Amino acid sequence: MQLKLLSVSVILYLCLSLSAKAQDPKIKYLSVSVMTESVAFPFTLLSPLHPGIELGITLQEWNRARSSSKLNTYAGYFYHQELDQSFYLRGEYEYAFSIKDAVSVGLPVGLGYMHSFHTGPVYEQREDGSFEATTQTGRPHAILNVGLGVSYLQLGSLQPFVRYEIMAQSPFVVTVPVVSRSFLKVGVSKKF
After folding, report:
1. Average pLDDT of span 96-123
2. Residue 163 buriedness (CB in 10 A; 0-12 / 13-18 / 19+)
3. How far apart are CA 143 and CA 127, in angstroms?
């Protein structure tokens, strides 16, 4: 319960900080991506597919000659058939540099909240030692992500991208306090 309150407090703080720092409240970019998730060490496993979707909003952007910085927020969902299905909200800072105004390489780091539900039935042990099926309310998690992404900049206001991210999730289960998940995302951003 304390972790859930702490996670919600951190998310609210990040959202308020982002909105207070934004000089222009308009949305800068809107992005959508499809992804696959894996509970594995980074860069070791890309199959089987565990599908997901993520929607993103860029709240602030600072541009320089060959680089830019962005403050982004994301909402996402993924389904891991043998393990769980999860919803998350996170804030992110992304530094990017461009190569010949054609390709942008981004380095994001973020923090957020995830809520997961077992994909199978959940059982509870009664006082007499027997088990009964119970309604699950899910489990709260704090998440931290880092990544590497490449965007193509030559299509006007549309910017297709590919991104690989690593996420640390805590707590995972009682005996494993932290687990890493990796994501391969393919999507498009629309600049406003």
Report:
1. 90
2. buried
3. 35
Dist. CA 54–CA 34, nearest whole Å: 6
**Around Cβ 136, how many Cβ atoms within 10 Å?**
14
User: Structure tokens of 132?
Assistant: 């009964």
Give me the pLDDT at residue 127, please.
87
DSSP letters for 107-154 = EEEEEEEEEEEESS-EEEE-TTS-EEEE----EEEEEEEEEEEEEE--
Query: What would the two tokens of residue 109 be?
Result: 């780091």
Distance CA 30, CA 189 (A): 6
Over the stretch 15-68, which tens digit does the pLDDT of each residue have?
555 555 545 557 889 999 999 988 766 666 666 788 999 999 999 999 898 999
Let me know: does 89 contact 118? Beta carbons within 8 Å.
no
